[in-house]
Design brief:
single chain, eight-stranded mixed sheet, about 15% strand, about 290 residues, alpha/beta
Length: about 290
Protein backbone atom coordinates (compact mmCIF):
# COMPACT_ATOMS: atom_id res chain seq x y z
CA UNK A 1 0.00 0.00 0.00
CA UNK A 2 2.85 2.39 0.86
CA UNK A 3 4.58 1.55 -2.44
CA UNK A 4 1.41 2.42 -4.31
CA UNK A 5 1.06 5.72 -2.44
CA UNK A 6 4.66 6.60 -3.24
CA UNK A 7 4.08 5.76 -6.88
CA UNK A 8 1.10 8.14 -6.96
CA UNK A 9 3.19 10.94 -5.45
CA UNK A 10 5.89 10.44 -8.05
CA UNK A 11 3.28 10.56 -10.81
CA UNK A 12 1.92 13.82 -9.42
CA UNK A 13 5.38 15.37 -9.21
CA UNK A 14 6.34 14.33 -12.72
CA UNK A 15 3.20 15.67 -14.44
CA UNK A 16 3.80 18.27 -17.08
CA UNK A 17 1.84 21.51 -17.00
CA UNK A 18 -1.77 20.81 -17.95
CA UNK A 19 -3.64 22.79 -20.58
CA UNK A 20 -6.06 25.35 -19.21
CA UNK A 21 -9.20 23.23 -18.94
CA UNK A 22 -12.04 25.23 -17.36
CA UNK A 23 -13.44 23.54 -14.26
CA UNK A 24 -16.92 24.64 -13.20
CA UNK A 25 -18.78 23.50 -10.05
CA UNK A 26 -22.58 23.65 -10.11
CA UNK A 27 -24.22 23.65 -6.69
CA UNK A 28 -27.33 24.68 -4.78
CA UNK A 29 -28.20 25.46 -1.20
CA UNK A 30 -30.93 22.81 -1.19
CA UNK A 31 -32.10 19.91 -3.32
CA UNK A 32 -34.94 19.95 -5.82
CA UNK A 33 -34.08 23.23 -7.57
CA UNK A 34 -33.03 21.71 -10.92
CA UNK A 35 -29.28 21.72 -10.36
CA UNK A 36 -28.55 18.47 -12.21
CA UNK A 37 -30.92 19.41 -15.02
CA UNK A 38 -29.01 22.66 -15.46
CA UNK A 39 -25.62 20.89 -15.33
CA UNK A 40 -26.67 18.41 -18.00
CA UNK A 41 -28.29 20.85 -20.40
CA UNK A 42 -25.62 23.52 -19.96
CA UNK A 43 -22.99 20.86 -20.72
CA UNK A 44 -24.91 19.75 -23.82
CA UNK A 45 -25.21 23.34 -25.03
CA UNK A 46 -21.43 23.71 -24.75
CA UNK A 47 -21.05 20.49 -26.77
CA UNK A 48 -23.39 21.94 -29.41
CA UNK A 49 -21.03 24.93 -29.59
CA UNK A 50 -18.19 22.58 -30.50
CA UNK A 51 -16.52 22.16 -27.10
CA UNK A 52 -15.40 18.90 -25.55
CA UNK A 53 -17.11 18.52 -22.18
CA UNK A 54 -16.84 16.03 -19.33
CA UNK A 55 -19.85 16.08 -16.99
CA UNK A 56 -18.93 14.67 -13.58
CA UNK A 57 -21.74 13.66 -11.20
CA UNK A 58 -20.34 14.37 -7.73
CA UNK A 59 -23.65 13.82 -5.93
CA UNK A 60 -22.71 10.39 -4.59
CA UNK A 61 -25.74 8.35 -3.57
CA UNK A 62 -28.19 10.91 -4.97
CA UNK A 63 -26.75 11.38 -8.46
CA UNK A 64 -29.21 11.34 -11.34
CA UNK A 65 -27.33 12.62 -14.38
CA UNK A 66 -27.55 9.26 -16.12
CA UNK A 67 -31.26 8.94 -15.28
CA UNK A 68 -31.98 12.37 -16.79
CA UNK A 69 -30.54 11.19 -20.10
CA UNK A 70 -32.12 7.74 -20.00
CA UNK A 71 -28.81 5.96 -19.56
CA UNK A 72 -27.62 3.17 -17.31
CA UNK A 73 -24.03 3.24 -16.11
CA UNK A 74 -22.26 -0.01 -15.36
CA UNK A 75 -19.27 1.76 -13.83
CA UNK A 76 -19.29 4.82 -11.57
CA UNK A 77 -16.81 6.97 -9.69
CA UNK A 78 -17.28 4.67 -6.68
CA UNK A 79 -16.20 1.68 -8.80
CA UNK A 80 -13.05 3.56 -9.81
CA UNK A 81 -11.96 3.66 -6.18
CA UNK A 82 -13.23 0.25 -5.10
CA UNK A 83 -11.90 -1.64 -8.13
CA UNK A 84 -8.83 0.51 -8.86
CA UNK A 85 -10.12 1.33 -12.33
CA UNK A 86 -8.74 4.07 -14.52
CA UNK A 87 -10.94 7.09 -15.13
CA UNK A 88 -11.09 6.14 -18.82
CA UNK A 89 -12.85 2.92 -17.78
CA UNK A 90 -15.70 4.76 -16.08
CA UNK A 91 -16.25 7.60 -18.58
CA UNK A 92 -19.39 6.98 -20.62
CA UNK A 93 -20.68 8.64 -23.78
CA UNK A 94 -24.14 10.19 -23.74
CA UNK A 95 -26.29 12.16 -26.20
CA UNK A 96 -24.43 14.42 -28.64
CA UNK A 97 -21.27 12.47 -27.69
CA UNK A 98 -21.04 14.19 -24.32
CA UNK A 99 -18.70 12.42 -21.89
CA UNK A 100 -19.95 11.83 -18.37
CA UNK A 101 -19.12 10.04 -15.13
CA UNK A 102 -21.96 8.65 -13.00
CA UNK A 103 -22.03 9.18 -9.25
CA UNK A 104 -22.85 5.72 -7.93
CA UNK A 105 -23.42 4.66 -4.33
CA UNK A 106 -21.38 3.14 -1.54
CA UNK A 107 -19.56 6.12 -0.05
CA UNK A 108 -20.95 9.22 1.63
CA UNK A 109 -18.81 11.77 -0.16
CA UNK A 110 -15.72 11.96 -2.33
CA UNK A 111 -14.39 14.57 0.09
CA UNK A 112 -14.36 12.06 2.95
CA UNK A 113 -11.95 9.73 1.15
CA UNK A 114 -8.47 8.95 2.43
CA UNK A 115 -5.55 11.06 1.24
CA UNK A 116 -4.34 8.12 -0.84
CA UNK A 117 -7.65 7.94 -2.72
CA UNK A 118 -7.70 11.71 -3.22
CA UNK A 119 -4.22 11.39 -4.76
CA UNK A 120 -5.53 8.62 -6.99
CA UNK A 121 -8.45 10.81 -8.11
CA UNK A 122 -6.10 13.69 -8.97
CA UNK A 123 -3.81 11.41 -10.96
CA UNK A 124 -6.80 10.04 -12.88
CA UNK A 125 -8.21 13.50 -13.61
CA UNK A 126 -4.77 14.60 -14.76
CA UNK A 127 -4.75 11.85 -17.36
CA UNK A 128 -7.86 13.21 -19.13
CA UNK A 129 -7.87 17.00 -18.70
CA UNK A 130 -6.10 17.50 -22.02
CA UNK A 131 -9.07 15.82 -23.73
CA UNK A 132 -11.60 18.43 -22.60
CA UNK A 133 -12.28 22.14 -22.77
CA UNK A 134 -14.66 22.05 -19.81
CA UNK A 135 -15.24 19.78 -16.85
CA UNK A 136 -18.62 20.42 -15.22
CA UNK A 137 -18.92 19.09 -11.67
CA UNK A 138 -22.52 18.55 -10.57
CA UNK A 139 -22.06 18.88 -6.81
CA UNK A 140 -24.27 17.53 -4.05
CA UNK A 141 -26.87 19.94 -2.63
CA UNK A 142 -25.82 21.97 0.40
CA UNK A 143 -22.32 22.75 1.63
CA UNK A 144 -19.73 20.78 3.57
CA UNK A 145 -16.29 21.44 5.03
CA UNK A 146 -14.86 18.66 2.88
CA UNK A 147 -15.86 20.38 -0.36
CA UNK A 148 -13.97 23.60 0.42
CA UNK A 149 -10.63 22.59 -1.09
CA UNK A 150 -12.40 21.41 -4.20
CA UNK A 151 -14.37 24.63 -4.58
CA UNK A 152 -11.15 26.60 -4.13
CA UNK A 153 -9.68 24.66 -7.05
CA UNK A 154 -12.35 25.25 -9.69
CA UNK A 155 -12.26 28.47 -11.67
CA UNK A 156 -15.98 29.16 -11.48
CA UNK A 157 -19.00 28.26 -9.38
CA UNK A 158 -22.62 28.36 -10.52
CA UNK A 159 -25.25 28.57 -7.77
CA UNK A 160 -28.78 27.49 -8.75
CA UNK A 161 -31.81 28.98 -6.99
CA UNK A 162 -35.53 29.16 -7.67
CA UNK A 163 -37.75 32.10 -6.69
CA UNK A 164 -39.02 30.09 -3.71
CA UNK A 165 -38.02 31.99 -0.52
CA UNK A 166 -36.43 28.95 1.13
CA UNK A 167 -34.36 28.30 -2.01
CA UNK A 168 -33.12 31.91 -2.06
CA UNK A 169 -32.28 31.73 1.65
CA UNK A 170 -30.37 28.49 1.17
CA UNK A 171 -28.53 29.90 -1.86
CA UNK A 172 -27.45 32.88 0.26
CA UNK A 173 -26.32 30.50 3.03
CA UNK A 174 -24.22 28.53 0.52
CA UNK A 175 -22.59 31.70 -0.79
CA UNK A 176 -21.98 32.92 2.77
CA UNK A 177 -20.31 29.59 3.61
CA UNK A 178 -17.97 30.01 0.64
CA UNK A 179 -17.16 33.64 1.40
CA UNK A 180 -16.51 32.97 5.09
CA UNK A 181 -14.09 30.21 4.05
CA UNK A 182 -12.36 32.49 1.55
CA UNK A 183 -13.37 30.74 -1.67
CA UNK A 184 -12.00 32.98 -4.41
CA UNK A 185 -13.62 31.30 -7.43
CA UNK A 186 -16.02 33.45 -9.46
CA UNK A 187 -19.65 32.99 -8.38
CA UNK A 188 -22.48 33.05 -10.94
CA UNK A 189 -26.20 32.81 -10.20
CA UNK A 190 -28.89 31.07 -12.24
CA UNK A 191 -32.52 31.61 -11.30
CA UNK A 192 -34.48 28.53 -12.35
CA UNK A 193 -38.24 28.06 -12.75
CA UNK A 194 -39.00 31.77 -12.86
CA UNK A 195 -42.59 32.67 -13.78
CA UNK A 196 -41.30 35.67 -15.72
CA UNK A 197 -38.10 37.51 -16.59
CA UNK A 198 -39.18 40.25 -14.19
CA UNK A 199 -39.54 37.77 -11.32
CA UNK A 200 -36.16 36.22 -12.09
CA UNK A 201 -34.43 39.60 -12.12
CA UNK A 202 -36.14 40.60 -8.87
CA UNK A 203 -34.98 37.40 -7.16
CA UNK A 204 -31.41 37.88 -8.39
CA UNK A 205 -31.22 41.52 -7.31
CA UNK A 206 -32.56 40.59 -3.88
CA UNK A 207 -30.04 37.77 -3.49
CA UNK A 208 -27.09 39.69 -4.90
CA UNK A 209 -28.04 42.75 -2.82
CA UNK A 210 -27.79 40.71 0.37
CA UNK A 211 -24.48 39.16 -0.73
CA UNK A 212 -23.04 42.59 -1.59
CA UNK A 213 -24.28 44.29 1.57
CA UNK A 214 -23.54 41.65 4.18
CA UNK A 215 -20.70 39.66 2.62
CA UNK A 216 -18.97 42.35 0.55
CA UNK A 217 -18.86 39.98 -2.40
CA UNK A 218 -20.20 40.44 -5.92
CA UNK A 219 -21.92 37.76 -7.98
CA UNK A 220 -22.97 37.81 -11.62
CA UNK A 221 -26.32 36.79 -13.08
CA UNK A 222 -25.64 34.02 -15.55
CA UNK A 223 -29.25 33.76 -16.60
CA UNK A 224 -32.91 33.04 -15.89
CA UNK A 225 -34.66 29.82 -16.89
CA UNK A 226 -38.48 29.96 -17.04
CA UNK A 227 -40.84 27.50 -15.42
CA UNK A 228 -41.54 25.49 -18.57
CA UNK A 229 -43.79 22.44 -18.95
CA UNK A 230 -41.41 21.20 -21.64
CA UNK A 231 -38.83 20.54 -18.92
CA UNK A 232 -41.20 18.30 -16.97
CA UNK A 233 -42.09 16.38 -20.15
CA UNK A 234 -38.40 15.92 -20.95
CA UNK A 235 -37.66 14.61 -17.45
CA UNK A 236 -40.57 12.16 -17.70
CA UNK A 237 -39.19 10.92 -21.01
CA UNK A 238 -35.63 10.81 -19.64
CA UNK A 239 -34.36 13.08 -22.40
CA UNK A 240 -32.44 16.33 -21.74
CA UNK A 241 -34.88 19.19 -22.37
CA UNK A 242 -32.44 20.80 -24.81
CA UNK A 243 -32.75 17.72 -27.03
CA UNK A 244 -36.41 16.99 -26.29
CA UNK A 245 -37.59 20.37 -27.56
CA UNK A 246 -34.97 22.78 -28.85
CA UNK A 247 -37.61 25.47 -29.39
CA UNK A 248 -38.94 25.40 -25.82
CA UNK A 249 -38.47 28.51 -23.68
CA UNK A 250 -36.17 26.60 -21.31
CA UNK A 251 -33.98 25.45 -24.22
CA UNK A 252 -33.78 28.98 -25.60
CA UNK A 253 -32.77 30.19 -22.15
CA UNK A 254 -30.01 27.60 -21.72
CA UNK A 255 -28.57 28.43 -25.13
CA UNK A 256 -28.70 32.14 -24.27
CA UNK A 257 -26.98 31.44 -20.95
CA UNK A 258 -24.25 29.51 -22.74
CA UNK A 259 -23.72 32.26 -25.29
CA UNK A 260 -23.49 34.87 -22.52
CA UNK A 261 -21.13 32.68 -20.51
CA UNK A 262 -18.77 32.12 -23.45
CA UNK A 263 -18.78 35.81 -24.34
CA UNK A 264 -18.03 36.92 -20.78
CA UNK A 265 -15.49 34.13 -20.34
CA UNK A 266 -13.47 35.33 -23.33
CA UNK A 267 -13.59 38.92 -22.04
CA UNK A 268 -12.41 37.89 -18.57
CA UNK A 269 -9.69 35.56 -19.83
CA UNK A 270 -6.91 38.04 -19.10
CA UNK A 271 -8.09 38.53 -15.52
CA UNK A 272 -8.51 34.95 -14.34
CA UNK A 273 -6.02 32.99 -12.30
CA UNK A 274 -3.94 31.07 -14.82
CA UNK A 275 -3.14 28.27 -12.37
CA UNK A 276 -4.49 25.03 -13.73
CA UNK A 277 -7.31 23.14 -12.07
CA UNK A 278 -5.03 20.18 -11.41
CA UNK A 279 -2.26 22.27 -9.85
CA UNK A 280 -4.83 23.85 -7.55
CA UNK A 281 -6.20 20.44 -6.54
CA UNK A 282 -2.68 19.36 -5.65
CA UNK A 283 -2.09 22.56 -3.70
CA UNK A 284 -5.29 22.55 -1.65
CA UNK A 285 -5.65 18.81 -1.07
CA UNK A 286 -2.06 17.56 -0.87
CA UNK A 287 0.01 20.55 0.17
CA UNK A 288 -2.48 22.57 2.21
Amino acid sequence: MNDQAERLRLQLKSMQKQKSVKAIAVLSGKGGVGKSNFSLNFSLSLVKKGYNVLLFDMDIGMGNIDILMGASSEKTIVDMFNQQLTIQEIIRTGPENISYIAGGTGINSIFELSLEKIEYLIVQLSSVVDDYDYIIFDMGAGMSEGALSFLQSVQEIVVISTPEPTSVTDAYAAIKFMVVHNIQSSIHIVINRALSEKEGLSVYHRLNGAVTRFLQRQTTLLGIIPDDRAVYKAVSNQVPFLLHNLKSEASKSIMSITQKYLLNSSREETKVDKSSFISKLKKFFLEG
